[in-house]
Amino acid sequence: MKICFLMYQGNMYSGGQGVYLYYLTRELARMGHEVHVIAGPPYPTLDESVTAHNIRDYSFWSYHHYKKDFVYNRPPLSYFHPVNFYELVSTRTTLSSLLANFSTRAYFKLRELSREHRFDVVHDNQTLSYGVWAMHKSGFPLVATIHHPLKYDLRNALRQARSTYEKARRILWSPWYMQEWAAKGVDRVIVVS
Fold first, then answer.
1. Cβ–Cβ < 8 Å for 38, 8
2. Total domain count for the chain?
3. Beta-carbon neighbour count of residue 147 at 10 Å?
4. Does a structural domain hold residue 170?
5. Which listed residue, 29, 128, 166, 172, has the most CB atoms within 10 A of its CB?
6. Is 78 within the bounds of a domain?
């Protein structure tokens, strides 16, 4: 099978999504499958048998983690492209913008790759955003892994919030509605413990 994974951030040292992606893709490749990964920064560590397709982004998080590279290794005018500027500004206040922008870029990358590769399945690793929905509507067979439903993360965050301001910030930050909506549009959902 030809399998394409999507990973909006593949940090190997924070959370578990990058580690999950590493081992799952490595084992699928060992079983003889052709495995590709479309990923955003921080890029995941992948086994040499897995093909990486890294997507550059303009999120505040990339600036925060890679200041020197973010500032000096890009054409100066690229920051003023409306999509890039929107991403830089909006990711300062909401996670849903990061997911939406990555998934949209991943959608176009997947379409580009599909000219050469016919993927049997696209496996979204927790992005669940508008671009993932577009992939499904374009006919790509799609499964998604949900590591933790953001609806419940938000509920817990609101319980812990100490002020109305903090509650409002948590509601704005969380893309719970987008994840719930996009999850309904995939062929299968995988839940890990």
1. no
2. 1
3. 15
4. no
5. 128
6. yes
Distance CA 108, CA 87 (A): 16
Kindly report, residue by residue over 122-176, the tens digit of the pLDDT.
Answer: 999 988 888 999 999 999 999 999 887 777 778 888 899 899 988 887 777 776 6
Cβ density class 100-136: b for 16+ within 10 Å, e for less: bbbbbbbbebbeebbeeeebebbbbbbbbbbbbbbbb
Contact 87, 101 (CB under 8 A): yes
Q: Where are the alpha helices (DSSP H) in the chain?
A: 17-30, 60-65, 67-72, 82-90, 95-113, 130-137, 150-160, 164-173, 176-183
Q: How confident is the model over 72-126, as pLDDT tens digits?
A: 677 778 777 777 777 777 767 666 677 888 899 999 999 999 999 999 999 999 8
Secondary structure (3-state) at 63: helix
Domain holding 126, by residue range, is: 2-149+177-191
For residue 181, the number of C-alpha atoms closer than 13 Å in the C-beta half-sphere is 12
Which CATH number characterizes residue 95's domain? 3.40.50.2000
The helix (run of H) or strand (run of E) holding residue 129 is none
Contact 149, 70 (CB under 8 A): no
Q: For residue 82, is it within any domain?
A: yes
